[in-house]
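Researcher: Next entry in the queue.
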Amino acid sequence: MTENPSTPPDNRQKVGETEHGSHLSNPPQENGEVCALPPLRNESRSAGQQIARAASIVMMAYIVSTLVGIVRGTVISHAFGTSMELDAYNAANRVTELLFNLTAGGALGSAFIPMFTGMLTRKDTQGAWKLASGVINALLVILVGVSALMWVFAPVIVDKILFALVANANPGMLDLTVTLLRTMLPTVIIFGISGLVMGMLNAHQVFLWPALAPAMYSLGQIAGILFLPKSMGVQRLAYGAVIGALGHLALQLPTLSRLPNRFYEKAAGIKDEAVRQVLKLMLPRILGAGVVQLNFVANTIIGLSLGAGAASSLTWAFTIMLMPQAAIAQSAGTASLPTLSAQVELGQFDQFKQTLSGIMRVMLLLALPATIGLVMLRVPIIRVLYERGSFDASSTQMVAWALLWYAIGLTGHSLVEVLSRAFYAMHDTRTPVIVGVLAMTANILLSFVFARLFGEIGWLPLGGLAFANSLATAVECLALLQILRKRLKGLDGREIFRVGLLSLMASFVMGSAIFTFMAFFRDMNKYFVLILGVAIGLLVYGVMLWVLKVPEVQSVLGKIKGQLAKKG
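Model: Structure for this entry, 568 residues:
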């Protein structure tokens, strides 16, 4: 459920990293080479500390990428607002994301990283790089073939699928969507290879450059809009996407070239047993990704049928919801998968449970207040980020309505991000896929139901699509949690529940403070309202966590005091 439904694919492969050389358990050699051993080989640092350090680095990188993404969003919103042109771009982009996720994407990462990490853990370096070579070769053949077929059948897909529910569709918009789709097809191939490179770097505990790669994608789109002729219209954005995808890959290649014992075997491929095992593990995940993407395609189709701007409004709303989700969940999920995989490989299941429980508690402490904050400050957030140029006040209201219903699913999205990786670390791609398929099927059905229901009671129907997504994600999260709890014979559920309850209490107090502030100052300068609203929220939430004596917070404060005492 956490795949991005309609935003540009700068988070297609949810991986992040540390700066070159910040390898969590194996410091760089004196000659500057990147170390290859997995994190658990360093006995002086616990898995939790390793993940915390990696997650903090990934989070900072994601914040940088998010800030660049905000600039990209500002440039796009100024140029295209919630226009039909942008609807056409989003529809074409949805198809390229579908292709990417069916052939590579999360399916590749969830299958490849645990196997690659396992080989490194066993010090089978030659086998690991032979596996990487084989997967690259197989992936290139698949991606090139699929992209070629899509080029040929693009007109049929656009007319008969994307615009199937649109009565009397504008022929010009159909042609534009076909052109945009064909222009962006190279991104499928580029992101496929880039995602695999991310997996190799993550397995070596290199997180920074992969997490900064989305910023390069955003910069490519910004460059396309600003420097290509305005007469090209929204095609500037499509060409910018191709430029950005190349930058996404190029940023990571220098670090890849410095990994120790690295080699590429041209002859490696599907005949290799390890490659076949990766592809076998990918199959269930591909099925799940297909259902997820079909769900988002369905939302796009429904959005296009709701009139001009509806599909784009859903895009902008989900983009905003993804900002805290990327910083909170994707950073922790990315940093935790190599460590969780190594713990499984070494049979350290008690440590595995402790690590996972700790990550989930941190997720709740961060995601719950972020949810309340998005709900309370959604209008000033949108006004500051996007309201300029073609993006007017009416656009703000449409996006704010969708964001209200997307925001309530933030905690579910964040937990699913981590829970699914726990299954992948255990080489189980089937369980999260089965749960995801059921959840996504329900999501598609609920999208039709709630869109109609919202319309009948006088609400904007697009809110029904967002609410269906949040509801289905919550069900998916609870199902994964229950299955994992039974499989591991417990998951420190009482402590997770206690921390979640304390966080919820603090979040509601925070929300009340923001509500009171907004009641008096909502009509003030938009920057003033947003900055002060966020500051009040952070202050009140932090004080409440201290008053409630949340152990995780007390632990952090204790370490800070200890560091200050040493310096004193």
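Model: The mean pLDDT is 81.
Researcher: Noted, moving on.
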